[in-house]
Every structure is written in C-alpha cells, then in structure tokens.
Amino acid sequence: MSTHINITxxxxxxxxxxxxxxxxxxxxxxxxxxxxxxxxxxxxLQKTFNHTLILVFSILLILVxxxxxxxxxxxxxxxxxxxxxxxxxxIVLGFLPSIxxxxxxxxEENFPGSDFTLLEKIIYxxxxxxxxxxxxxxGLIQGFLLPAKHIGFNFMNRFISLPVMIGAAFFGxxxxxLLTLGLAFFAVLTIVIFGIVLGIIAGYYREQTNSLVPxxxxxxxxNIGGSLLGLFx
Length: 233
Prior knowledge:
Helix content is 72%, strand content 3%. The protein is mainly α. A hairpin with a 2-residue loop joins strand 1 (152-155) and strand 2. It is globular.
C-alpha cells in the first residue's frame, strides 16, 4: 500500500514540477515581451526565448532534485535504436494532424511558426523546440518518475510504463495552451491527441536507451512532418 502511495505522490509531484516550469517560464516570458520591442518584431525570437526559459528551468530543477547531477534524466549519448523506422513513423505522424486540420477547413494563419521562413522553421521549430520540450517532458518529468517504470501495460508486445504515459500525457495536454492563440478547439484537440502519441513513442525509446537522443529525433521528425503542407502549399 505504501508503495502505491509513494508512486501516486511522485506522479502528482511530477505534474506539479511541470506546471512550475510552464508557469515561471511563461511569467518571465510575458514580462520581457511587454518591455522588448525587438521581441515583438521577431516572432521567431519570441519562440526561441520562451523555449530557452523552459530548457533552463527544467535543467535547474533536475540539478536541484538530483543533487547537482544530470545522470538518470536522459543526458546520455545512445544511438542504438531503429533510426530509419522512427524517422519514417514520426514524419508520417506529424503529417497526419496537418492533413486532418486542413480537411476540416481550419486556417493555419494563427498556428505558431506559420509565418516563419524555412530557415527559421529549421532552427527554431524543428531543432530548438524539439530539444527544449524533450528535456522538459522526457527529461525532467519522465526522469523524475523513473522509480515507477515497472508499472504499466503491454501494447503490441511493447511495455508502456507509467513514466512514459505521464510524460506523454503532460506533453499532449500542454498544447491546449494553443487555444489562447484563437485556434479552433478541434484543431487543438487533434494536435493534443497526436502529441500524446508522439510522446509515447519518444518516451518509450527514451526509456529503452536511457537517452534523450531518440526522443529528440522523434520530436524533430514529427515537427518536420507537421510542416510539410506549409512547405509545398
């Protein structure tokens, strides 16, 4: 019974840690945004700064929780995973929600990054956002829940652990913030659902390799897939 209580408490605490990162980084971002003309003139700079704050707060919390060490939170170089298969799956999964949203006739004019140049998309969305968000969700949140990795269920001969599920759910649900940009609920819900799927795949391979490398790669390819319609429109 005490073990279940500890796991429940750790799960709640993991969610709280995630909210702390989002709240504090968001507060600082909004403060700087209201005082900086440069930030307002360059949307790509806004996104970069916001994600950098998330990255910094995530690493700081990991260091505090883990007594000054990053070990156990995915900061490990490991490339022993099916790269080709994951690249293909991730690009397709990223492409599908954009197709669904287009078929449902929702405009992309308010989507974050829709007004970026190709170079800006490559640097700020495909690469930097993927790194920052993976350190946050698969690094901090999933890493904090590592003691619960024996809890989970089997799906298609794969064991999906509680840390993977919580990290994926948090990642997906945090995209509901897109509603504040005026996006249609169905469009945001589509992004949330596919975000959870992405999170499960990224989290599974992060857990299998003890590395954020496959998670970042999956995330990056997912973002590339989501940009394909815009590139060829």
